[in-house]
Amino acid sequence: MAHKETYDLVIIGTGPGGYVAAVRATQLGLKVACVEKEPRLGGVCLNVGCIPSKALLDSSEYFHLAKDHFADHGIKTGNLSLDLKTMMARKEQVVAELTENVRKLLEGNNIRIFHGSARLVAGDRVEVEKNNGSAGKSDRQTLAAKAILLATGSAPIQMPGLEFDGKRIVTSTEALAFKSIPKHFGIVGGGYIGLELGSVWLRLGAKVTVVEMLPQIAAAMDGQVARTLDRILRKQGMEIRLNTKVAGAQTTRNKVKVTLEGNGKEEIMSCDRLLVAVGRRPLTRNLGIEQAGVETDPRSGQVLVDENYRTNIPTIYAIGDLIAGPMLAHKASAEGIAAAECIAGLSGEVNYDAIPAIVYTWPEVASVGLTEEQVKERNIPYCIGTYPFSGAGRARCMGEKDGFVKLISHSKTDRILGVHIIGPRAADMIAECVLAIEFGASSEDIARTVHGHPTFSEALQEAAMAVRKCSIYAS
Ligand SMILES: Cc1cc2nc3c(=O)[nH]c(=O)nc-3n(C[C@H](O)[C@H](O)[C@H](O)COP(=O)(O)OP(=O)(O)OC[C@H]3O[C@@H](n4cnc5c(N)ncnc54)[C@H](O)[C@@H]3O)c2cc1C
Q: Is 453 a catalytic residue?
C-alpha cells in the first residue's frame, strides 16, 4: 500500500555516516527518518567491518599471547586449546549489542526507522520497498522529504576471473565468519583489510599468503613504516608476495588454485580459501540515482558533491564511502555531522588534512597528515624526528620492542606535517597527533608537552624532541 509522509530529512543507510547524521540533524530540530535495507542497523562498520574484525583481532591476539608469550611472564597455560565457535559467538554478541545500541540511539532521538530498500523517485521523494519474504510480495511506501541524504556505503570490488562464490573465493564478510581455520589462506591485496584478516587467521594457526601487485604492502602508508610492517609480519610467519599479479583462479570442491604472475614467471598457488580484498566500490546500484539525475564520477562511480555535501540535485546530499576520500568509518561520521549541519543551514565542514588512518595489525600502524614521500613530491622543506619503542619503558615492560614514531615537520616553521607510528597502541596514540595537526602545532609544542611516565606516548614526545636533535634518550 502506498502512502506519503513528510520529513525534513530522509537518510538512506544507517552506517556510521547515516546514523550519526540522523542524530545531529535531530539535535538541530529537523524531523528525520532513516531507511535501512538490512535487518540490523550500523552498516558495514558495525556488522561486517570495523567491529567484528576488531573483535576477532583482539580474540586472536589473546590466543597468540597465551600460546607464544605468556611463558615469558612466568605464566604457564598448560594444554591450550582454541574453541573457534565460542570466539565467533563472542564476536556476534559484540556486534548484536552495538547494533542494538544504534537502534536505541535513533529511537531515543525520535528518528523514524524504515526497514526496506530505498530508491530515489525524485529530488523530494524516496520509495521504500519492504520485502515480505517467501510470499514474493512487497510493500511499497513513499516518503516525502525536503532533503535526502545518501549514505549507502560501499561493497567489495570483484576481480574478473576471481568471482566470489562465498565459500572458496570470498569477501571480507565471509572471512570474518569461517567455521574452521583454513590450512592455507590466500589473500589478494595487501591493504589494511587483507593484512588485518590475514593476522587473525595467522594467529589462529593458518598458513597465510598475501599477494600484492605493487612493490609495497599498505601502499598509502609512509614507505619506511610500510617496509617495517612488512618485515614484522614476515617475522610473524605471514608470507608476502610483492610485485605479483593474480591472473585467475580455479576452484575445486576443497581448493582454490590461483595463478600468480611475477618476475616474468607463472606459478600456481593452491589454498583452501582465497580472500579478494582489492578495494571497495560505492554502492549506488538500484538506488535510482540515474532516474533522479544525480551525477557520479564515471571512473570511480562515486557520487559527486560540493563542499556542502550537496549533489547536482539541490535537495540530495551524499556522504561516507559513497563519495570521494578514504573509505573509513570516522570520515563517514565526520561527514555525517557536517552534512546535517549544512542541511540545517549551518556551515559544517571536515578537515581532510587531519583524518587518521589505522591498521590494526600487531603492532598497530597509525598515521595522520603527509608521508615523507608526499612531502618530497611537493618540494616542502622538512625535518624528521624518529624514536624507537625499544627506548620506551612502558613498551619494554610489555615486551614490545618493535616499531617507532616518525614525526615530520616543516623545516622553516616547525609546523607538524605528518606523524606515522608503528608500534603498540599506535591506534590510540595517533589522537594526540590529529589534534596537533588540527591546532597547527609545531614539533616543539609536542616536545614541551609533559607526557605521563611510563607511557607509550613518551616515544612521541622523544620523536618530537628528535626533530631539533634534542631527544634526551636517543643515542
Ligand atoms: C572488514 C572491514 C574492516 C573495516 N575496518 C575499519 C576500521 O577499523 N576503521 C574504519 O574507520 N573503517 C573500517 N572499515 C570501513 C568502514 O566500515 C566504512 O568506511 C564505513 O562503514 C562507511 O560508512 P558509511 O556510513 O558510508 O556506509 P556503510 O557502513 O556501508 O553503511 C551503509 C548502509 O546503507 C545501507 N544501504 C545500502 N543501500 C541501501 C538502500 N538502497 N536502501 C536502504 N539501505 C541501503 C546498507 O545496508 C548499510 O547498512 C572496514 C571495512 C571492512 C569491510
A: yes
